[in-house]
Each structure stands twice: as C-alpha cells, then as structure tokens.
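Dear support,

I submitted the protein below through the web form. The confirmation email said the job was done, but the results page showed an empty box. After a refresh the structure appeared. I'm attaching both so you can tell me whether what I see now is the final result or a partial one.
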Amino acid sequence: MLRECLEIAEQTIPMHPVTAKALLLLGSHAIVEEQCDEAEQLFLRSRDILRQVAPMSEEMARVCIGLGAVYHDSSRLLEAEEATTQALKILNAVHPQGHSLIQQAEQLLHLIWQTKFGN
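What the results page shows now:
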C-alpha cells in the first residue's frame, strides 16, 4: 500500500516532504527486513528531496540516522560516522531542548566508534 502511495507521490509531487517521508518509511521497513541495499537507495532518494525542500528537518535527521545504520551494517564506518554526525547537528538545531532522536543518534555514533576503534 505504501509503495503504491509512493508511486503516486513520485509522479504527482516528486519534490515534496510527503514523498520524502514515504521513502523514509519504506527505507526504515527495509532495514527491519535486513534489505540494506534497498534501504540505502530509499534513504538516498529521500535525502535528495529533503536537501531541496527541508534540509534542516527532523525527517532529514531520521534519513541520516537510517543511512548511518545502513553504512554501519555494511562496514562503511566513515560514511556511517558522517551521516550520524550530520543527524546530530540537525537534531541539536531543530530540538535545542533535547529529543529522543538525539539519544538514538548518539547511541548509533557510539556503536560506530566501538566498531571502528574496538572499545
């Protein structure tokens, strides 16, 4: 159902936050299903849209967290660190009083560093 909605959105409102959100949701589902290549492509498409329409949004931070997770799972640690750090920058700007996503991004960054440096 979401894929059908995405197809319609991509045809009618290709550069809209709603289209980016649908890509984000599908990417998140693909991670759960352990389909990292598909998740990466969906997150990248969402990021391309959000760079144009909402670069400093919570959705962009979620996309960056998703990319960080995908890159970590595929041992692309530098890219994982960059994406997760970008998510933290956005979240700290958007939610200066704190947010649960900040904690999630910090945990992912810690996991990346553990993998990268072995502690």
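Response: this is the final, complete result; the empty box was a page-load delay. The chain has a mean pLDDT of 93.
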